[in-house]
C-alpha cells in the first residue's frame, strides 16, 4: 500500500516537472531582463512550397533585451528581416541564426522572409513570401 502511494507521488511529481519543462521550452524564455524567442520556418509541403513562421506572432516588453533564435526548416536559403531593429540574416537550409537586440521601439512590426527564386530543390517553384508580427508593448 505504501509503495503504491509512493509510486503515485513520484509519477505525479514527474508529470509536474515535465509540464513545467515543456512550458519553458515552448514559450519564449526570460532570463533576468533578457528574453529568448525561438522562431522556426516550417515547410509544410515541399512540393507545393507551403511554408510559414512558427510562431508568427511575438510580443516582448519595451526596453527588453531580446534574442531571436531563428531556425530555417525550409529546403531553400532563407532571409529573416525585421527592419526596425536592423535585422537581415541569411540562413542556409537546416541552419539557425541568433540575433540579439534591445526592443527600444514600441509598436507592431513586420518580420518577413522574401520569396525564394525557383530552383531544382523546389522543382522550379518559387518559395512563398513569409511574414509575422513582432509587438513591443
Secondary structure category: alpha+beta
Average residue-wise pLDDT: 79
Q: What is the architecture of the largest domain at the second tier of CATH?
A: Sandwich
Fold-level CATH name of the largest domain: Immunoglobulin-like
* Distinct helical segment count: 1
CATH superfamily of the largest domain: Cupredoxins -  blue copper proteins
Largest β sheet strand count, sense and barrel closure: 5 strands, mixed
Low-confidence stretches: 7-28
**What is the N-to-C succession of helices and strands?**
HEEEEEEEEEE
Text of the CATH class of the largest domain:
Mainly Beta
Indicate the radius of gyration in whole angstroms. Answer: 19 Å
Amino acid at each position: 500500500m505504501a509503495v503504491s502511494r509512493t509510486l503515485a507521488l513520484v509519477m505525479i511529481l514527474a508529470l509536474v516537472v515535465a509540464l513545467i519543462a515543456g512550458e519553458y521550452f515552448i514559450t519564449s524564455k526570460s532570463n533576468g531582463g533578457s528574453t529568448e524567442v525561438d522562431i522556426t520556418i516550417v515547410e509544410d509541403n515541399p512540393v507545393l512550397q507551403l511554408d510559414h513562421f512558427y510562431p508568427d506572432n511575438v510580443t516582448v516588453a519595451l526596453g527588453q533585451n531580446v534574442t531571436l533564435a531563428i531556425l530555417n526548416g525550409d529546403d531553400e536559403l532563407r532571409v529573416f528581416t525585421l527592419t526596425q531593429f536592423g535585422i537581415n540574416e541569411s540562413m542556409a537550409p537546416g541552419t539557425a541564426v541568433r540575433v540579439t537586440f534591445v526592443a527600444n521601439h514600441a509598436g507592431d512590426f513586420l518580420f518577413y522572409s522574401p520569396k525564394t527564386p525557383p530552383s531544382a530543390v523546389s522543382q522550379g517553384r518559387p518559395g512563398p513570401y513569409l511574414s509575422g508580427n513582432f509587438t513591443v508593448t
